[in-house]
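Narrative summary of target 7.
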Amino acid sequence: QVQLVESGGGLVQPGGSLTLSCQGSGVPLDYYAVGWFRQAPGKARERLSCISLDGDASYADSANGRFTMFSDNLETTMSLQMNGLKPDDPAVYYCATLTRCGDAYDYWGQGTQVTVAS
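Modeled conformation, tokenized:
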């Protein structure tokens, strides 16, 4: 079973940057497609990005041009670099595994809180 632990969230000013990390255990993350999603209070889950088994990255419109996914050389950590954070970006951010990008999420962690405020 895959276990995922997200970290790196925190408070940042508008326009600032954060790098979130997703540490996987159980199996190497390159056995799966891996995605990031977020959920803010009272709002639906929002897909942000995904890296497929072929290594192709895709991004939602809200993330495109601002967020970048990358993994370490050992494929045990999948990170999300977030630049230009906006006041509507605050949420709990989760990483998750999927069979294919666009599929339902199979496993996800506890999430990490991102807050954007002056």
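The CA atoms of residues 71 and 114 lie 20 Å apart.
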